[in-house]
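Something for you to look into today, if you have time. Just paste the record in under my message, thanks.
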Amino acid sequence: DFLCISLVNGFIQLRYNLGDKTVILQTFQKVHANGNTWHSLKAGRAGNEGYLDLDGINITQKATPGMNALDTHTDFFVGGVSSLNLVNSMAVENEPTSFTGCIREIVINNREMKLTVTDPKGGANVGDCDGTVCGYTVCKNNGTCQVENSGFSCSCPQEWTGNTCEQSIHCSQNRCGSQALSKFIGNSYIKYTDPYYGKRDLQHSRISLNFTTNQTEGLIVWMGKSEDEDNDFLAIGLANGKLKVVINLGERISVPLTHSKYSTCCDERWHFVTVVQNQTCVKVYLDEELILFEDIDPQRKYTALNYGGICYFGGFEIGRKVNIVTTGLFQKEFIGKIKDVVLFQDSKKIQLMNAEGYNIYNGNYGN
């Protein structure tokens, strides 16, 4: 089996074989070989139906009966391979040659590959295409990079600030007090990176916070990277007006715990939630009353919450819908206020407004 994208006589080709026959798709137009034109390329397959899109012009290969799984179990190569004689003769039209040019922003199965010196497993004869310290996406959120004697500087769009335009002005201008009270108005999120993650005992996790809302649906917090379906997570939110807690310690098995005794979560009053994970035992407290207590896996197959040091509050980055990222566990972003977030047994509350975020306001002002 193989899947290969190559440049052939100026055209882009996608070739793949799932075990029965080789499918070949080729773009209608040639790429510009002037060395200064960027092209956007999307290619892949759903089952045995392939698609190839160059700069918005799409070609598809209709599925026919046959194999529909790509069984490779090998490394993923970009720009060439360690030995060209390893390339299947059907994967390319002519003799295989390495790519000469520039490649940026590689996304595989919705996960971006970091093209840095340290992240790839290996490589050879690869350099910085830009040739300056600016490079691609050094300045976030459509910021413009300028080369300076001391390095670089970013000119940021109106809504963003920080050295690399990474921080929303709503977060930078509104420093919260000791409560770290944040107001979420919809299409909002905060992404917090836990600086103490490396020292945590992940078999004994804990998070507590206060929230208030008038909504019956919403994701309050998601402890986990949420980059792919294998990532561990612990989530707290609202579903049908009830408090819902979901935990996944591994093997893609999500265990939802829903408090159905009474609905108190959308009455615009402050509610205090604490979730404690002791290996596979989970306790949930609402307003200091123990409302849920369950051993989610008596076999103790997975006992640690490997959340990657990432916590999302209220939702996810722009363009990432809550119902899609959480695979339907929660339906929408949180609208309301969150304060007094404490991880594990830390003595200090998280300063939410100092973290990366969007559409977040200081809840101490106004209501």
